[in-house]
């Protein structure tokens, strides 16, 4: 039996992207929610909750982007020119956000400015990621083996909808993370925010899900063709169940379950994205097999991935385990 290396690498990159969304999502979410926290103790506690892990989270972004370039160079060459604007905006926002994260501690005299920069970088970074996803999902104009669209093709109502959706969704992850990591008034505030953001996330998931099948005929077929609809229909059903369990866990005062169930909603949304797009890496234009590098290159890289990904998972898991407790004004305890 021959190993389908393009499919394996599609899974590896999808895993890296989802790991980034999971691990950096709540980090960006805290930045998005930062203005709702009182200056001083609350903001310090929120930032301390992610200080031990935030910079390691973006390892997965590097793996996803670098993996796309190496494993699917044709897709990389098409997608990058199509999404230059949102990708550059995302990278600049993440850089500025990282600088603000460090400088707010080292430059107390200008802390309000760095707090604003931290929030702005988080919001713009999250929004740009959502816009890029929406622009990819709605389709990219391709002629031959290159991008054939214009500079502003990415900017549509659908891409703006996905951008807003990701900002709200990341805000939900940040709020539920703080429910799990804080105590007292701050936890109560995070719990209230989780309820509002949870409702907003569910509404936006429904809006994006309702619009997606009508972007392309292939999406509609993937979701509603018989008998596959018997399987695909389970995804929105599980989203509904997850939403009910999420609000129930908030109402009962659980600390960990809201965060885990928010992650489950993101996972189900990611599964829905896979149902819509597979087997295309550039929807409607380039499949994963069309875009893949030669098998010998994919196998060479796979050997490295098999060694390095478990190491990354191990040290990431260890970091989260060490800092598994509650956080206060002075740090973890």
Blueprint of the fold:
Layout: H1 5-33, H2 41-50, H3 54-57, H4 59-71, H5 73-82, H6 84-106, H7 111-138, E1 142-143, E2 146-147, H8 157-181, H9 184-211, H10 217-224, H11 229-232, H12 234-251, H13 257-277, E3 280-282, E4 286-287, H14 288-291, H15 295-322, E5 327-328, E6 331-332
Antiparallel strand pairs: 1-2, 3-4, 5-6
Protein model, in words:
The radius of gyration is 20 Å and the shape is globular. It has one domain (5-324). The longest helix is centred in the N-terminal third of the chain and has 29 residues, at 5-33. The mean pLDDT is 87. The protein has helices at 5-33, 41-50, 54-57, 59-71, 73-82, 84-106, 111-138, 157-181, 184-211, 217-224, 229-232, 234-251, 257-277, 288-291, 295-322, and strands at 142-143, 146-147, 280-282, 286-287, 327-328, 331-332. It has a two-stranded antiparallel sheet. Strands 3-4 form a two-stranded antiparallel ribbon. It is mainly alpha-helical and 333 residues long.
Give the total of domains.
1
Mean pLDDT score: 87
Kindly provide the radius of gyration, computed on alpha-carbon positions and rounded to a whole number of angstroms: 20 Å
Distance between the termini: 52 Å
Short description:
This protein is mainly alpha-helical. The chain is built from 15 helices and six strands.
Feature tags:
two-stranded antiparallel sheet; 333 residues
């Amino acid at each position: 039996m021959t190993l389908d290396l393009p499919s394996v690498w599609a899974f590896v990159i999808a895993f890296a992207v989802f790991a980034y969304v999971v691990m950096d999502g709540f980090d960006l979410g805290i930045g998005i929610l930062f203005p709702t926290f009182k200056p001083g103790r609350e903001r310090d506690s929120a930032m301390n909750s992610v200080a031990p892990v935030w910079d390691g989270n973006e390892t997965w972004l590097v793996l996803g982007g670098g993996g796309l370039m190496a494993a699917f160079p044709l897709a990389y060459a098409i997608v990058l020119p199509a999404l230059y604007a949102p990708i550059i905006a995302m990278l600049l926002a993440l850089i500025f956000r990282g600088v603000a994260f460090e400088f707010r501690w080292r430059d107390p005299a200008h802390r309000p400015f760095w707090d604003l920069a931290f929030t702005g970088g988080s919001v713009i970074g999250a929004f740009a990621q959502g816009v890029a996803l929406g622009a990819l999902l709605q389709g990219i104009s391709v002629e031959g083996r290159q991008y054939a669209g214009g500079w502003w093709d990415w900017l549509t109502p659908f891409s703006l909808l996905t951008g807003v959706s990701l900002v709200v969704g990341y805000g939900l992850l940040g709020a539920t993370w703080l429910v799990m990591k804080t105590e007292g008034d701050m936890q109560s505030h995070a719990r209230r925010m989780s309820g509002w953001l949870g409702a907003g996330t569910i509404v936006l998931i429904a809006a994006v899900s309702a619009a997606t099948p009508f972007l392309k005929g292939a999406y509609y077929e993937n979701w509603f063709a018989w008998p596959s609809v018997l399987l695909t229909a389970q995804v929105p059903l599980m989203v509904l169940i997850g939403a009910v369990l999420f609000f129930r866990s908030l109402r009962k005062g659980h600390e960990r379950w809201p965060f885990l169930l928010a992650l489950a909603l993101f996972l189900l949304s990611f599964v829905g994205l896979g149902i819509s797009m597979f087997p295309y890496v550039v929807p409607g234009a380039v499949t994963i097999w069309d875009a893949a590098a030669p098998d010998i290159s994919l196998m060479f890289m796979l050997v490295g991935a098999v060694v390095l990904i478990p190491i990354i998972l191990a040290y990431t898991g260890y970091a989260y385990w060490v800092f598994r407790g509650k956080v206060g004004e002075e740090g973890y305890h």
